[in-house]
C-alpha cells in the first residue's frame, strides 16, 4: 500500500477550531475597545462642558450664586453635549456655611446610567467675581 500524504480529518478540524477561537477572541476585543473608546469620548465631552460651566460660575458674584440658573448656561452658546442627547446638565448650590458655598455641576446621559459630577467650593472673600 502506498504511503498517503496530508492531514487527517481530525487534524483539520482541530486547526479550524483553534482558528475560530482566535478570530472570535479578536473580534470580541475590537468590539470592547470600540465601546470603551465611545465611553471615553463621552466622558471627555461631559468634563469639557463642566469645565466651561465652572469658568462661568466662577465669575458670578458670590451673593448671586443661588439666583443663577440651575442648568448649564454655557450650553446655550455651544451645544458641546449634542452627541450625548438626551442628557441633563444641572447645577446645585449648597446653602452658605461659614462664608462658603459648594457648587455641584453634573451631567447625566444614557438614561442616567452615566453620570459625571464636579463640585467646587466658592468662598466669600469680599472681592470681585474672579477671586
What does this structure look like?
38% of the residues lie in helices and 21% in strands. It has 131 residues and is an alpha+beta fold. It has one domain. A 3-stranded antiparallel sheet has the order 1-2-3, with helices on one face. The longest helix has 50 residues. The N and C termini lie far apart (97 Å).
Report the β-strand fraction as a percent range: 15-25%
Strand order of the largest sheet: 1-2-3
The helix/strand class is alpha+beta
Counting H and I runs of at least 4 residues, what is the number of helices? 1
Mean pLDDT: 91
What sequence of helices (H) and strands (E) makes up the elements?
HEEE
Largest sheet: 3 strands, antiparallel
Helix content: 25-40%
Shape: rod-shaped
Taking all Cα atoms into account, the compactness measure Rg is: 27 Å
Whole-number tally of structural domains: 1
Distance between the termini: 97 Å
Low-confidence stretches: none
Count the beta strands: 3
Q: How is the secondary structure organized here?
A:
Layout (H helix, E strand, L loop, with lengths): L8 H50 L28 E7 L6 E10 L4 E10 L8
Antiparallel strand pairs: 1-2, 2-3
Summarize the structure.
This protein is of the alpha+beta class and 131 residues long. The chain has one domain (9-123).
Tags for this model:
rod-shaped, 1 helix, alpha+beta, 38% helix, 131 residues
Amino acid at each position: 500500500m502506498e504511503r498517503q500524504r496530508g492531514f487527517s480529518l481530525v487534524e483539520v478540524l482541530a486547526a479550524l477550531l483553534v482558528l475560530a477561537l482566535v478570530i472570535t477572541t479578536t473580534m470580541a476585543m475590537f468590539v470592547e475597545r470600540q465601546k470603551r473608546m465611545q465611553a471615553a469620548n463621552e466622558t471627555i465631552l461631559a468634563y469639557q462642558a463642566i469645565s466651561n460651566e465652572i469658568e462661568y460660575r466662577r465669575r458670578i458674584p458670590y451673593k448671586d450664586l443661588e439666583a443663577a440658573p440651575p442648568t448649564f448656561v454655557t450650553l446655550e452658546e455651544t451645544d458641546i453635549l449634542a452627541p450625548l442627547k438626551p442628557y441633563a446638565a444641572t447645577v446645585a448650590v449648597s446653602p452658605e456655611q461659614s462664608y462658603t458655598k459648594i457648587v455641584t455641576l453634573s451631567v447625566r446621559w444614557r438614561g442616567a446610567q452615566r453620570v459625571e459630577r464636579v463640585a467646587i467650593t466658592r468662598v466669600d472673600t469680599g472681592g470681585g467675581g474672579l477671586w
